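Before relying on records like the one below, remember that each one covers exactly one chain. Contacts with other chains, cofactors or solvent are not represented anywhere in the record.
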Amino acid sequence: MLGADGNAGKAGSGGSSEGDRRNLLDVKGLKKHFPIHGGLLGRTRGYVKAVDGIDLFIRKGETLGLVGESGCGKSTAGRTIIRLYEPTGGDIVFDDPDLGPIHLERATSKELSHVWMHMQMIFQDPFSSLDPRMSVGRIVAEPLVVRRVVKGSELNDRVATILTRVGLRPEHMSRYPHAFSGGQRQRIGIARALAVSPNLIICDEPVSALDVSVQAQVLNLLEDLQDEFNLTYLFIAHDLSVVEHISDRVAVMYVGYVVEVAPTEELFRNPKMPYTEALIGAIPPPNPRLRSRPLKLPGEVPSPANPPSGCYFHPRCQYAQDICKVERPPLREVSPGHYAACHFAETLSLRGVPALVGAAPAVSPVPVASAAAGTS
C-alpha cells in the first residue's frame, strides 16, 4: 500500500509533496462485499467484491477523479466512503474541521450527523435523486432544516441565494422537479449539496446523464463553485475526457481495485498500467476525420463475485507473465507521485495521449476508412 506522505508501504494514492496542503480524506484498504444468498434457506453462498481494498487520499482543495468501466465499483466506493453503505473493512479517515480526524467506518450516528455537514454527495441520476412530491425550495432547504442551521425567513433567503448561485432563479422555489430539464435538475442537486457549506463533495457521475453541451455547463459550474467556496471533490466518472478536464489527479479502478494513480497530465501522457493504456486508447480523437487504432482487449470484465487469481487484469493483458497469474501486484510508486499496480510498470512502454493535455498526438493517426477496415 502507499502512504499519504508518498512513501511506499503505507496507505494512500499519491505523493504528498505539497506539505502545506492537508489530506482531507484518507482511505486505506476499503472493502465493500455484498453477500450472495441462495438455496431454500437463503444461506450466504459467496460475496460480490464490489470494492476490494482500495487506497486513496484527497488533499484539501483538489479534485481527485475516480474512473473505470461500468461495474468496476467506483460508485460503490463513493457511497461507502460517505457511509450510505456500511464498509466491510478498511479505514476511512475524514479531517473534520470541528472534530479533527475521525474514522467514519466506526463513527457513531451522532458523529456521522455532524460529519455530513461537511461531506455531501451529488448523485448520478438527476431524475430519481429528487423527491417528485417536494418543491425545489423544500428539497434545497431540507438539509438546513434537518441540521437546524437556519429557519424562517432566513431559511428562504439562504435557499434563494443558493439557487441563484447555481444558475436558477428564486421563483423556482415553488416549482416541482418535473418542471425542469435534466441539466436544471442536476443544478438543484448541486444546490442541495451546497446548502450546508460542505468541505468535501462526492460527485457520483454528475454529468453522465446529461447532453454534451449541458455537461460542459455543469462542469464549468462545479469548477467555479470549487474556486469560490474552496471545495474538495471526489469526481467519479467513466468518461476520461471529462475527468481530464476537471481533475488534478486521477485514480483508475478495475474490478474493485485501484490500479493506477497519478497527476492528470502525467497519467494521460505516460500511463504505467496496461488497463489505463486501453482506457486512454478508447478516447475518440478531437478530429473526426482521423482515428487512431484502438487497443482491443480480449475477453470480458471478470465478475467481482469470482475474480481471477493474481492480477485481476492478467486474462486480458497482452503483457502478462507467469507471475501475473499468481501474485496480485501492490499499488506502488513507480515514479514521483505516480503509482501503479503492475509487476512490470517500470519496464513497459505504454501508449498515452499528450494531445489531450496540449501536446502533440502520441500515435500516428490513420484514415477512418482504414481503421474501420482493420476492426471489421
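DSSP finds eleven helices and 14 strands in the chain.
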